[in-house]
Automatic annotation (TrEMBL), chain A:
<keyword id="KW-0732">Signal</keyword>
<dbReference type="InterPro" id="IPR050490">
    <property type="entry name" value="Bact_solute-bd_prot1"/>
</dbReference>
<keyword id="KW-0574">Periplasm</keyword>
<keyword id="KW-0813">Transport</keyword>
<protein>
    <submittedName>
        <fullName>Trehalose/maltose transport system substrate-binding protein</fullName>
    </submittedName>
</protein>
<dbReference type="InterPro" id="IPR006059">
    <property type="entry name" value="SBP"/>
</dbReference>
<dbReference type="Pfam" id="PF01547">
    <property type="entry name" value="SBP_bac_1"/>
</dbReference>
<comment type="similarity">
    <text>Belongs to the bacterial solute-binding protein 1 family.</text>
</comment>
<feature type="signal peptide">
    <location>
        <begin position="1"/>
        <end position="23"/>
    </location>
</feature>
TrEMBL record, chain B:
<keyword id="KW-1003">Cell membrane</keyword>
<feature type="transmembrane region" description="Helical">
    <location>
        <begin position="35"/>
        <end position="55"/>
    </location>
</feature>
<keyword id="KW-0472">Membrane</keyword>
<keyword id="KW-0812">Transmembrane</keyword>
<dbReference type="Pfam" id="PF00528">
    <property type="entry name" value="BPD_transp_1"/>
</dbReference>
<dbReference type="GO" id="GO:0005886">
    <property type="term" value="C:plasma membrane"/>
</dbReference>
<dbReference type="InterPro" id="IPR000515">
    <property type="entry name" value="MetI-like"/>
</dbReference>
<feature type="transmembrane region" description="Helical">
    <location>
        <begin position="144"/>
        <end position="164"/>
    </location>
</feature>
<feature type="transmembrane region" description="Helical">
    <location>
        <begin position="298"/>
        <end position="320"/>
    </location>
</feature>
């Protein structure tokens, strides 16, 4: 009897030792803006506990343009070391060939997502990636300063400009800036530029049917207005700011207004922030005779075709994109859910009020023209952000630059987008 | 190498010559064989890591290759370089790298950057080398300290300078403003008129030590007695520099310049990190990378890489001709 017990204990011991050996090690690669990596780490901890698998995180720089170049290289080389890629919302058509079709695996989850977001990840019927979080920018403003001068948060860009000028004048603080945004030549400026143009009623650069519409009077007016901000309410340096540089200026209390994604909300409210409890957010202002427009952003998780453990990787993706995981991220770092029901969750509303307010903004957000321009989107985007950046920098007028952009895009399109 | 058969008995002249020739040819054959044996691994490695990619890149530049499907590339001739698209009705347009203003802008940026930065680095490097060549206490320490910028990886120094040049928090603006040179902060990397200057400043900071080191090596080859003689003759030190030092270290400087120029013409990392996507500083390599990996234009990027190779090869050949550099080992 005694020997039997011993036998059992031994067997159990062997089972314990051999247990982890059958578990899989997965890797996930992601950019690192704000708390992105901490978010993933938290999600993964829960996953590891539940499954016994281990997940390695590979960190990338925060510019999505840089990430894309690296991912494309890895995927083209059929690199099996990365199982799960965190992909930008605009990448689906360009990388679709390298990812596993998630349609079947995600039958039950896909339907819970906001339709426009899940649609953005479908390429010719193939579900390329599952949405992890959505992004739609906000106008951050200094509540204390606006209240001091009896101002309401601006409804139009012109109001924003006027308010910023007034406050700057009255405060007389040379370290204070009126408005910071993402003006560096990179994907983020395509978002900012698209918002200015679309909010003036100037279209979406390339319309869903593939027609190039950027060269119009409203787009010219939008870019002219934005160019007028540089050196007056926005610092010269904004032409090299990405998200984190803008947040750096804002969070040290050196800006009255900031255009940024909701991730900055949680961080601006954190312990060492100089603007803690002194700010609030509203949707972006509208242009002359237009409606506010927010650029649809966000990240998705895709499974590499070259993964050694595709099934486990799909499970990991489902786990990290589930309603529970999205709720957790919304509470931790104000990441906007892509699953509608999470917005109504009382715990989320209490922890991050911005999330609850943002459902409409996300649902009505303007998509970048990644679907109509297909594999040529990156070049379209580069041509657009270059034109916008040059206009902001005062190299050529808005009319000239948009006319040239129009010509470039037409040359790029030639027979049709492919 | 002369082959003298030691201990050979004195014989008829013709016989000696014949035998010497036979010995020489046998020996030289043997030497030739071992030379090839030693060289073969190196040639193989070079062909594999340098030759093959080069050939492959040139091949891709004549195809319609896409990074998603490299195996399925079709030959398309010169289309990536130049192509006339006829729209009918006598209307048409040229496409291709040779008529791409972005490419020529990148070529101009690169040549401009290389010319200015290498010139400044050469002059500064020469000054540093002259100082370091003088005898003073703690010279070893100074020599080591001067090398630090060169030892830091470019990515790190570029990022470091990007923060130092930041318009809001940057120490560079702070220092220049407290001395009174600037009245308000400059956004060094963002401002189109200063972006290239910023890149050149960082490059000069980083690479001057390298130039100084190479020129210093040349300086140390100059025999000291020449200076002694000049001193005894009472020649002014400035004249000694122009008439003695400079001519003697000229070969060292010319070699150093070509090393740097080759490096500068293929600049990528510094520009990619310090001023990403900026039209004012985009170099040929950045242009190629962008087309190869960012856009779906692998073959176009390959064409850019091929032209980059040709441009550098041409500039190098012209330089070698102009500077009358000799690599044949002739004295």
């Amino acid at each position: 009897m005694k020997s039997m017990k011993l036998w059992f204990a031994l067997a159990a011991g062997v089972a314990l030792i051999s247990g982890p050996a059958s578990a899989v090690e997965l890797s996930i690669v992601s950019g690192a803006t704000g708390q992105d990596i901490e978010d993933i780490r938290a999600g993964i901890a829960a996953y590891e506990k539940q499954t016994g698998n281990t997940v390695k995180i590979v960190e990338m720089p925060n510019s999505s343009t840089d990430q894309f170049g690296q991912y494309r290289l890895w995927l083209s080389a059929g690199n099996p070391d990365i199982d799960v890629y965190r992909t930008d919302v605009v990448w689906a058509p360009q990388l679709a060939a390298h990812f596993v079709d998630l349609s079947d695996a995600a039958k039950d989850i896909a339907g819970q997502n906001i339709p426009s977001i899940i649609e953005s990840q479908k390429v010719e019927g193939k579900l390329v990636a599952l949405p992890m979080f959505a992004d739609a920018p906000a106008l951050y403003y200094r509540k204390d300063l606006l209240e001091k001068y009896g101002m309401e948060p601006p409804k139009t860009w012109a109001e924003l400009e006027k308010d910023a000028k007034q406050i700057l004048e009255k405060e007389g603080d040379s370290g204070l800036n009126g408005f910071v945004f993402q003006g560096a030549p990179y994907e983020g400026l395509t978002c900012n530029g698209l918002e200015w143009v679309a909010s003036h009623g100037g279209g979406q650069i390339v319309e869903p049917d593939g027609e190039i519409t950027i060269n119009n009077d409203k787009a010219v007016a939008a870019l002219k207005q934005a160019a007028g901000w540089i050196g007056t309410i926005a610092p010269q340096g904004v032409l090299s700011y990405q998200e984190e540089e803008a947040r750096g200026v804002w969070q040290t209390g050196k800006a009255i207004f900031m255009r940024n994604w909701p991730y900055a909300y949680a961080l601006s409210q954190s312990g060492e922030s100089a603007v803690k409890d002194k700010f609030a957010v509203v949707p972006l202002p509208a242009g002359e005779g237009g409606n506010p427009a927010a650029c649809l952003g966000g990240y998705n998780l895709a499974v590499s075709k070259y993964s050694r453990h595709p099934d486990d990787a799909v499970e990991l993706v489902k786990f990290l994109t589930s309603a529970d995981a999205q709720k957790d991220r919304a509470i931790r770092s104000a990441k906007l859910p892509t699953i509608g029901s999470v917005y109504e969750d009382p715990e989320v509303a209490k922890a991050q009020p911005i999330v609850a307010q943002w459902k409409d903004v996300v649902t009505n957000a303007v998509a970048r023209p990644s679907a109509p321009t297909k594999k040529q989107y990156n070049e379209v985007s580069k041509d657009f952000w270059t034109a916008v950046n040059e206009t902001l920098a005062g190299r050529g007028s808005a009319e000239e630059n948009l006319k040239q952009l129009d010509r470039q895009l037409k040359r790029l399109k030639r027979g049709g987008w492919e | 190498m002369t082959n003298v058969k030691l201990g050979a008995p004195p014989t008829e002249h013709s016989f000696v010559a014949d035998e010497a020739a036979a010995v020489q040819s046998q020996l030289s054959r043997q030497r030739l064989r071992s030379a090839w044996m030693f060289l073969t691994p190196m040639i193989l490695v070079l062909a594999l890591v340098a030759g093959w990619p080069l050939v492959k890149t040139i091949w891709f530049s004549f195809t319609d290759a896409s990074l998603d499907d490299l195996a399925g590339a079709n030959f398309v001739g010169f289309r990536n370089y130049l192509e006339y698209v006829d729209y009918g009705d006598g209307e048409g347009e040229y496409f291709g790298l040779l008529v791409d203003p972005n490419w020529w802008n990148a070529v101009w940026n690169t040549v401009y950057y290389a010319a200015i930065s290498v010139t400044i680095e050469t002059v500064l490097g020469l000054v540093f080398a002259l100082v370091l060549n003088a005898e003073f206490r703690g010279r070893a320490w100074v020599r080591a300290a001067v090398l630090i910028p060169w030892a830091i990886p470019t990515i790190v120094s570029a990022k470091m300078w990007a923060w130092m040049m930041n318009d809001q928090f940057g120490i560079l603006n702070d220092m220049l403003m407290s001395v009174g040179i600037l009245s308000q902060p400059i956004a060094w990397t963002a401002n189109p008129s200063t972006a290239m200057i910023a890149v050149i400043i960082v490059d000069v900071w980083k690479t001057t030590p390298f130039m100084a080191l190479l020129i210093l090596a040349g300086l140390q080859m100059v025999p000291g007695d020449i200076y002694e003689a000049a001193k005894i003759d009472g020649i002014h030190p400035v004249k000694v520099f122009w008439k003695v030092t400079l001519p003697l270290i000229r070969p060292a400087i010319l070699v150093a310049v070509i090393f740097r120029a080759l490096d500068a013409l293929r600049v990528f990392d510094l520009i990619y990190v310090l001023t990403p996507n900026n039209t004012q500083t985009k170099s040929m390599s950045v242009f190629a990378q962008e087309n190869l990996f960012q856009f779906d234009k692998f073959s176009y990027g390959s064409a850019a890489s091929t032209l980059l190779f040709l441009v550098i090869a041409m500039i190098t050949l012209v330089y070698i001709k102009a500077a009358k550099l000799e690599f044949e080992g002739g004295r």
